[in-house]
Amino acid sequence: MTLPILFTLFTFVILSACSKQQEYLQPPKVDEFYTPPDDFRDYKVGDILKLRKTLAGLRSMYLPINIKNSWQLMVRSENTFGEASYMITTVMEPFNADPAKILSYQTFQDSADLDCSPSFSVQQGASRLDIGAQFDMTFILMALQNGYYVVSPDYEGPQSAFLAGRQAGKAILDSIRAVLRSGEITGISQDAEVAMWGYSGGAMATGFAAVLQPSYAPEIKERFIGVALGGFATNITEIIHAIDGGFYAGLIPAALHGLANEYTFLKPLMLEYVDPAQVERMEKAADQCLINVWVRYVGSNIFNGKGAMFKNGAEFLKLPQVVDVLKDNSIIYLNASYVPQIPIFIYHSSFDPIVPIKDVYTVYDNWCEWGADSLEFSEGWLGNHITDIALGAFAGWSWLEKRFEGVEPVVKGCHHHVMYSNIQYPGAIWKVLDYFKGYYNTLWYKPLGRGTKSTTTTNITSIAVEYISEIKKSMIAYYKQRSQTRKGFNLGSYILFELMAIDSIGTPLSQKKLETLEDTL
């Protein structure tokens, strides 16, 4: 029986189980656990206000994961304006966990709806529409498999302030503060090493945590060993212009609602500028998870073009109070007092259609000029925002794991390098094995953690090789098609596409094979 058939059968069983679990798993808006105690303002940031074990087991996409424990902590925090707030964070303990290693992973929630919070979405029985947190769990498996604790914060806070960077950064840091104090509950050492990781919206939140840490949480600086930022969103305004009218246009109304949840004056101002005939359509983005937002608004003109949602085009974005909000939540506009003091690894695709790389260049140049101690920027020439979720993740994980192993960053100061693909980054291809090992063990509900009985490296290698081979075939067909539809398109420049021309795991294609491939294309 082939792997796809097994996966289909297994998925059917899981979905059946999930439908029963929804009877007791309540979404955050109606779950009393998400309501803080009356005296929460009296606590210090990072204090644990409430705790419980997750009501259901956790999952990676449709598959349940087998770990030792998982908890939800309500933590005292602050909002953008320094006012008392709170947030929920999920703590995952694998089997034989190392109490001295913590990965704080920020998923790309990308929603203004509280019911799309990661703490709810990663549980079995939750809605399957919040694919961001569920898909990110496939990468979290790599850390769990190695015995690292993983923390997944609801960094948007109780107002679901999507893209409110300062709110997110504070929430992440307070989550880490709380986890370092949770030893009696979780077994985590107060002196544990901490790494942060995020992609896209998760990278923006993680980036704000990194730049706010020196001023907001200086006492935990020594705990941090590194930060990985992929598909690094640094300029909200430019992202809006890049995706308006395209496949990802739905992120715009979701982002505006998320910011309005934090900056309440934006909501009436926004509706004043929306075409009256489209107000109801605009409002629906306020309570949709990522998949629904994508589907509902695909190809929509929000500010520009025929039938645009905003009646005066992009004039709304030029209002002084709107400009201030967008700049205050875009890392690109921060000054020299906001330079990270933690080793940073950025990975990004050159032709990312969602998050323009030119703004990442600017942030990189700024941080270097302002004295960043260790800043490495890996740019993948091929691929895009979606493909680098996976291909770039292996580079990010390779870099992070070196930090967990006690290896100092190779880069002192700054270094920017360009590759055909980020999966060419040293050690990245071998992390494909970690990914498939975690996936395979989850497929069969094997325990995740150090020293657990799991599939052999040989079996995982064969699965990974088959997977990479299929990707190579698909990309050859893709580029061949492009050569037939684009006049003068030079396929020779794309020979080392995406999977950086690997014949098998870690084995580069010979020059002869490259020439044969180029002739074929």
What's this, in brief?
This protein is α/β, with parallel strands linked by helices and 521 residues long.
The strand order across the widest sheet is: 1-4-5-7-6-8-9-10-11-12
Helical residues, percent: 40-55%
Shape descriptor reads: globular
Largest sheet: 10 strands, mixed
Task: Please describe the structure with a list of short key phrases separated by commas or semicolons.
521 residues; alpha/beta; Rossmann fold; 434 Repressor (Amino-terminal Domain); 3 domains; 10-stranded mixed beta sheet; two-stranded antiparallel ribbon; globular; disordered C terminus
Ordered list of secondary-structure elements with their pairings:
Layout: H1 3-21, E1 48-53, E2 59-60, E3 63-64, E4 69-78, E5 84-93, E6 98-106, H2 118-121, H3 131-145, E7 148-153, H4 165-180, H5 183-186, E8 193-199, H6 201-216, E9 224-230, H7 236-243, H8 251-262, H9 266-273, H10 279-283, H11 290-297, H12 315-318, H13 320-328, E10 344-349, H14 357-369, E11 374-380, H15 387-404, E12 413-419, H16 428-443, H17 457-485, E13 502-504, E14 507-508, H18 511-520
